[in-house]
Amino acid sequence: MSERSYDLVLYGATGFTGRQAAHYLATHRDVQGLRWAIAGRDTNRLEQLRQNLGEQAGPVGILVADSQDPEALSQLAASTHVVISTAGPFAKHGEQLVQACLQAGTDYADITGETPWVRSLIDRFHEQAAAKGVRLVPFCGFDSIPSDLGALLVVDYIRQEYGQGTRRVKGYFNAFGGFNGGTLASLFDMIDAGQMDILNDPLLLNPPEARSAAEATRNPDQAFPELDMDFKVWTSPFFMAPVNTRVVRRSHALASSYQQPYGPDFRYSECMYFDEWVPLQSTAVSAATGLLHTVAQLPGFTQWMRPLAPSPG
Ligand SMILES: NC(=O)c1ccc[n+]([C@@H]2O[C@H](COP(=O)([O-])OP(=O)(O)OC[C@H]3O[C@@H](n4cnc5c(N)ncnc54)[C@H](OP(=O)(O)O)[C@@H]3O)[C@@H](O)[C@H]2O)c1
Q1: Is residue 16 in contact with ligand 1, taking CB distance under 6 Å?
Q2: What would you report as the CA-atom Rg of the chain, rounded to the nearest whole angstrom?
């Protein structure tokens, strides 16, 4: 293990999410003697971040590599056992880093929510990574860890407690606050790349053998307000469901191939829920989601929106 300088490198450490990840690592270094480094494109910003982390962080290395510099990325990947990346949009800043990690035999995890990009990674690199024993693990942020591990834990619990498979898991979300600039930049890039239709494919991340019409029909995306009789709440489409549901379905498909299916004709869905008698918020959110979906496909949408949206960082 010790021929590499680091156990873990955090790439994109100076961004909005990267800074939070760096502070988290600085204060939660549960692994005794963890050797870690922060990485990004700007030496000064990295130095400043290291100072802000303070002594609690222990010795922290600094690695400088632009996302478009394959040589620097190769050196970075070869210097560590694991890279975790928060540098997005990932189709732009993750592509060469993933290839460098694959080449160096370095495990890689990120917080992308860009399903079309991950589909292309699977098509190009899954076999090679599996053969080399390199783990490439996208979607390790809020999308889609709670959904993916949440569904798995429910399925495991039901199997242990009741000795049965699970037919259906539903995820309910509630949210407040706003959108951050980095996430919107990634969304705008996907719209500009004409990927809105691909995002709508409910089985986008599934392997070919798990892409049947019946599977797609079983797993539609919610489009309208609905009264959920299990919890007696009104629900609406959840804006991250087009990411999270695809991830959970892929995990189920892979479990079916390599271990055992979650359950017969397993279904997974996500919605937002509202504790209201009259479906006001659920209708408003459903309408806004549908409207956004329509206008996002109009020519020039991102040109208008980019200056109005919060900036990345
Ligand atoms: N899965 C989730 O739950 C989740 C949550 C939040 C965000 N995200 C995703 O994570 C990504 C980052 O979001 P964020 O809000 O943290 O964005 P951000 O603040 O804009 O951070 C982007 C990072 O990318 C770096 N970067 C930009 N251009 C680069 C280049 N040429 N070479 C190397 N690094 C470069 C930036 O470096 P500088 O600091 O030098 O500018 C910064 O560190 C987005 O794709 C977003 O969609 C996912």
Answers
A1: yes
A2: 21
